[in-house]
Amino acid sequence: MKIADLKKIGATISNITNDIKLPELKFNNKAEKESQSSQKENITQPTEKKIVISSLDDMSLWLENLSQDSPITVKSALESQLEIIRYIKSPTLIDTTFDTLILNLKKSLSLTDSEDMKNEIRERFTLMMQNYIFFLDARLQTSLSSKNKESKALLNTAGEMLCKSVISTATLAIPGGQLASIASGIIIKNVFSSDSKDFTQFFNIFKLFQNKQEEIETKKNEFYTTIKNIILKFDKYHELIGPSILINGIIERYAEPVSDYAFNSSINDINTEISNIQKEISSLNLIQFNKKKLLNEQLSTLKSHLNDEESKKEQLYKSLIQIAEKFN
């Protein structure tokens, strides 16, 4: 797809797998509406030729062109969506994506006094946050799974979520009065459908880690540490983000696996030690009293440590659920 075609931006945005109704934007006042309409006039004229967006590069070009002529209240949202696409495209990129999302959300909200527009902006950012976390998970599961069908289905679903997020964000840049008149000019395909170039590249990169235990453990540690840190940032910025069923659901989904990962390894190690000592004690004869006493002392210490670890795990889980409840 050529940049010249992108600049024409003809009609509605539709997902190849799901028809999506574009919501009409609300404006703070007449002047804001007229200003946005004027800014968009040169890039949203209907065109007979449909523009097909079928790759991450196409998405990036399209959003970049929308961003160039967008009002300042919308630019940060478009830039955040571009940041997510850059992260998805580059598996070696140092991840500052979530922090960028928070900074851009704060910036976007500060640039409008309209509560309706603020709600629109928050909705788009929560979709992006959900999509970002889902791709983090898709990366991990593709690295772990030897069952290609499951990994490919997960990537396909991640692609559908990305399309919906891009579509939703793009509607902020298109004047509400023109949404109906530009009804069929752009088709956004699932860039992670099984026959796409991006799908093949993504899948081939991350399946290389399958059966490489050391690298898999490193990726699992990175994933669960990142998810835990994101949830803590959700807590820190919950007033900025606002109520969100999506964010609530994300936190509830990951609260248990994050808690399990944080403590299950040490709990399993302690249980193994306890089992070994119990076997050793049972093998001792009556005259080995001193050794048995020493082992029982070790056993008592281990059981106390086990209780502490299990208590910490439960406390972490409860604290994460309490964060989720702040988004109700």
Structural class: mainly alpha
Largest sheet: 3 strands, parallel
Count of beta strands: 3
Please, how many helices?
Answer: 12
Question: How large, in whole angstroms, is the Cα Rg?
Answer: 25 Å
Low-confidence stretches: 1-47, 179-183
Q: Tell me the domain tally.
A: 2
Spatial strand order of the main sheet: 1-3-2
Mean pLDDT: 80
Amount of helix: over 70%
- What does the overall shape look like? elongated
Give the percentage of residues in beta strands. Answer: under 5%
- Compressed to H and E, one letter per element, the order equals HEHEHHHHHEHHHHH
- Give the termini separation: 42 Å
Please give a quick description of this structure.
The chain is mostly helical.
Features:
elongated; 2 domains; 12 helices; single chain; 3% strand; mainly alpha; three-stranded parallel β-sheet; 328 residues; disordered N terminus
Task: Provide structural commentary.
This protein is mainly alpha-helical and 328 residues long. The chain folds into two domains: 3-211, no CATH class; 223-328. It has helices spanning 3-8, 30-40, 56-68, 72-89, 97-110, 115-144, 148-171, 197-207, 213-236, 238-241, 245-283, 289-325; strands spanning 13-15, 51-53, 186-188. It has a three-stranded parallel sheet, with helices on one face. Helix 5 (97-110) runs antiparallel to helix 6 and helix 11 (245-283) packs antiparallel against helix 12 (289-325).
